Amino acid sequence: MGYFQPGATVLRREVLHGAPWVVTPSRVVVDEPDLLVVFLVPGTRFGYPPHPWPHEKQLAGNATWRGHGKLQMHRPDDAYSVDLYWEGPSRRFHGWYLNLQDPYRRTPLGFDTLDHELDYWAPADGPWVERDREDFERQVVEGKYSAELAERVRRQGKEIEAMLTAGTTWWDPAWASWEPDPDWPVPTLPDGWEDYPQP
Fold first, then answer.
1. How many distinct structural domains can be found in the chain?
2. Cα–Cα distance for residue pair 128/16, rounded to 1 Å
3. What percentage of the chain carries pLDDT values higher than 90?
4. Model confidence over 22-63: pLDDT tens digits?
5. Which of 71, 16, 83 is nearest to 49 (CA)?
6. Record keywords: Hydrolase included (predicted)?
7. pLDDT category, 78, cuts 50, 70, 90?
8. Residue 12 and which of 2, 98, 112, 139 are 20 to 30 A apart at CA?
């Protein structure tokens, strides 16, 4: 399967219990053998296919992405992405968000993954913190994640904690100054996205 060109629209699908759970059209920034970077453009509309486990954003009535957008960096086989956030009228860099998720799997229209709820936040001006541990453990009990997956997520969390504590992060800090192409329109879900083949 080939690589996507910068500026192309790809579908980021989260797949839960064998079925798409949420679909997010995103812009490609970099797609190379060792790095996939996509941008979630402000105003992008989420797609929520019918699913027996309702998505929390859907339940909250969250239909579109608000704010400055976020940049998501992925390395092959990593069970997390590194997401960059900006804030305020001047678009000041806010920090790095390590989002634990399935390693991405390429598809003809983009890539599949699944958010694992547990995250780590490394702000631009302070120490890192763990996020959403209680929600993650609750969802394990409720059956969203299997016991086997939960153990892998916990191990991945420990590895991230060690990396952040040692300051041995792999990404280039220069990404904090990245800016989206102002001519990029908000990407949209293509016709028939609900019927896109099952994973």
1. 1
2. 28
3. 85
4. 999 999 999 999 999 999 999 999 999 999 888 888 877 788
5. 16
6. yes
7. very high
8. 139
In a domain, 3, yes or no: no
Token representation of residue 21 = 């759970």
Residue of higher predicted confidence among 187 and 196: 187
Q: Is residue 178 situated within a structural domain? A: no
Which pair of tokens denotes residue 53? Answer: 């486990």
Sheet holding 70-74, edge to edge: 105-107, 110-113, 9-16, 19-32, 35-40, 70-74, 80-87, 92-101, 115-123, 129-131
Two tokens, residue 127: 């120490």
Single pTM value for the model: 0.95
**3-state SS of 118-185?**
EEEEEECCCCCEEECHHHHHHHHHHCCCCHHHHHHHHHHHHHHHHHHHHCCCCCCHHHHHCCCCCCCC
Sign of CA dihedral 131, 76, 28, 110: negative
